[in-house]
């Protein structure tokens, strides 16, 4: 796990990001327009079945999402556009209108959106993991809430160009909650966000992560692209390292920032206005939590199997805490 804990990479990463910013600035308006015209022409000529419905591709702002995500490389942008439409065809239910589960997730800050950007103009998303109530809000609803939030915020060209920062606060996230993490849904999230969405995640910060989250991350790591792995930072309980990356004045009090406590209601109402939804008052579910049976497999092994057996929907992080911790210690040796 040392590759996540070291912070020597920061200078190298910042230098690379500055080079990318310089590269983007070198693109003239004419260059961007030529790339847009090229992508539009490629879409018009394409016979790919994933692009059977090209109606949305008539929207220049929509096409720009893919150009920014692939630094205005027309061919790579087109390939991402095809992957996006193919994934939407295969998982149309993910983009269905927001339901009670999605609104419940947003009300719990899963995700939340900070009102202010960071110094590089990046949109900052928050995930308060300990707020998750699996019996009231399935993991799939959390994924849909994240996906629909990204879709909504990508309407802003600044988010297309500058990308996103994600902060996941694992403080007080319990082993019992981790047992409800469905490996199939986690795999869907990775496949979608990493390969099919026109979005640029510039950094992903984990705060207060327990050992069982680190175990799961160790298993997920081989399935992540090298660039994604490099952008994951584990801060543990050391908020000062988070503050080295993000300014205090934009962070809420929960993250040691100078702002007030995060109010999830602000983004929830903004989201509902954009989707023409009249949100009913969100109340905590009274449904009792059903005990999860203990199985022999480790939580980390569940995710590994989900990647090897893609069509099996029954995997989740059920496991024995003592044996899982032993596995983590073995990994660290």
Description:
The protein has two domains: 2-90, Helicase, Ruva Protein, domain 3 (Orthogonal Bundle), CATH 1.10.8; 94-274, 3-Layer(aba) Sandwich (Phosphatidylinositol Transfer Protein Sec14p), CATH 3.40.525. Helix content is 50%, strand content 8%. It has helices at 2-5, 9-26, 29-45, 60-69, 74-90, 100-107, 139-153, 157-162, 175-178, 183-195, 211-220, 226-230, 239-245, 264-274, 299-308, 321-332; strands at 112-113, 123-128, 164-169, 201-207, 232-236. The protein has a five-stranded mixed beta sheet with strand order 1-2-3-4-5. The longest helix is centred in the first third of the chain and has 18 residues, at 9-26. The relative contact order is 0.12. The model is unreliable at 1-16, 284-300, 310-319 and 326-333 (pLDDT under 50).
Tally of separate helices: 16
Query: What is the H/E order?
Result: HHHHHHEEHHEHHEHHEHHHH
Largest β-sheet summary: 5 strands, mixed
Strands across the major sheet, in which order?
Answer: 1-2-3-4-5
Mean pLDDT: 83
What is the CA–CA distance across the termini? 10 Å
| Shape designation | globular
Task: Decide which structural class fits the backbone.
Answer: alpha/beta
Q: Which homologous superfamily in CATH is the superfamily of the largest domain?
A: CRAL-TRIO lipid binding domain
Helix content: 40-55%
Number of strands: 5
Report the oligomer. Answer: single chain
Q: Can you name the CATH architecture of the largest domain?
A: 3-Layer(aba) Sandwich
**CATH classification, class level of the largest domain:** Alpha Beta
Radius of gyration: 20 Å
- Tell me what portion of residues adopts beta-strand conformation: 5-15%
Question: What is the CATH topology of the largest domain?
Answer: Phosphatidylinositol Transfer Protein Sec14p
Extract low-pLDDT stretches.
Answer: 1-16, 284-300, 310-319, 326-333
The total domain count is: 2
